[in-house]
Amino acid sequence: MANVTILGAGLVAGPVVRHLLEASSHTVTVAARSVDRAAELVAGHPRGRAVPLEIDDDAALDALAQGSDVMVSMLPYLHHVRVAERCITHRKHLVTTSYVSPAMRALDARAREAGVALLNELGLDPGIDHMSAMRIIHRVRAAGGTVTSFRSYCGGLPAPEANDNPFGYKFSWSPRGVVLAARNAARYLQDGAVVSIPGPELFARPERVEIPGAGVFEGYPNRDSVAYVDTYDLAGVQTMFRGTLRNVGHCETWKAMADVGLFDDAARSYASATYRGVLASLAGVAVDEDVEAAVAARGHVALDSAPIAKLRWLGMFDAAPLADRNTSPLDALVARMVEKLQYKPGERDMIVLQHSFVARYGERSEALRSTLVDYGIPGGASAMSRTVGLPAAIGVLRLLDGTIAERGVVVPVTPQVYDPILDELEALGIRFHEERSPLP
């Protein structure tokens, strides 16, 4: 029996805790700022316990690492390296669901020397997307083929019956993280040429994406797809694109919000400490002037456009006071979104993930499409929390039983890592539908 410590008790932590308690005999400690929330996740299980944790308490982190066999960081990504350093010091494994940062990558040699795995990108996106893609890429290669094009889209959205607000979106993971991601620049490879998209232009040219059985969506590029040519071992591939799915109309509104300056996370003071005051400040007018018209002009949209109507519905033009006078435009926006874009009890979310490949076998080519559509459980776990949390929990178990033997900074792109996790996810009902068709 091993000791597993989970840091954080946020929206996607529940399935990690439950699976580890239900599918193993290990003890599970949930450490979080809100010990009450941690206790809710443990739910009185005899092998579970909840403890308080302030993330800047280095002594507490050291004590937790020393008493663990594996640590799971469900904290915001900027804390992962501090946790990883303590795992290396105490020779304990670490699992995260976040992208590998340069600072995390720099720990590879130290982790190898300590004999520990820092297993990252073990959620949905990143995570299941990598594993399912690599399984097909390796299968194509084993059959003598070459992947010449790879396009992938992933999105977490309200299920159709829960899509009932003007934004077409509800939060199933960190609200601030969602908005921060909207500032990312992007790069991808299209027909052999690198396309670079600066952060402010991320939403400028969405693609129409139809997913059979799920609907029609907007897609836009996600971070640096070009880097995955090496990660996926696809030297020579002509198209490499990873994107995000949202409901139709999303990109116009988020482009306008970016142009207005609502994604700025620098705190400032406002002449009027209200939501209207934030927009007035960004648009360069006083609160008693025509703020809506000024915001429309700054956002390059018409006064009667959908983005202005959505900001009005959100309450961003209201004279309601800010929770903190010294706040950033981004945090003011997030505060309003948290109020308005929440799932109601019993509502379902939806995960849509689709990979599209072109594979060449000598003179013959074929298209392959692999699609995952998963729904949350009304009154139970969301699809987002399951698809993020379950791969992490399974990864913990496979580290502990020795199935995953890689050491250092690890991402799930080898069969030794992805096969056992994908197989277990399929047994839990998270499975892909594959289609193949010949190309002329």
Describe what this molecule looks like in 3D.
- Helix 1 crosses helix 15 (383-400), helix 10 (250-260) packs across helix 13 (306-314) and helix 11 (275-283) crosses helix 12.
- The strands form three sheets. Strands 3-2-1-4-5-6-15 form a seven-stranded parallel β-sheet, sandwiched between helices.
- The radius of gyration is 23 Å and the shape is globular.
- It has 440 residues and is α/β, with parallel strands linked by helices.
- The longest helix has 18 residues, at 383-400.
- It is built from 16 helices and 16 strands.
- Helix content is 35%, strand content 24%.
- Strand 4, helix 4 (80-89) and strand 5 (93-96) form a beta-alpha-beta unit.
- The chain has helices spanning 14-22, 35-42, 58-66, 80-89, 102-105, 108-114, 128-142, 175-181, 228-231, 250-260, 275-283, 291-298, 306-314, 329-340, 383-400, 415-427, and strands at residues 3-7, 27-32, 48-52, 70-73, 93-96, 117-119, 146-158, 186-190, 193-197, 207-211, 215-221, 239-247, 349-361, 364-375, 408-410, 433-439.
- The protein has three domains: 3-119, NAD(P)-binding Rossmann-like Domain (Rossmann fold, 3-Layer(aba) Sandwich); 128-253 and 344-381 and 432-439, Dihydrodipicolinate Reductase, domain 2 (2-Layer Sandwich); 267-327, no CATH class.
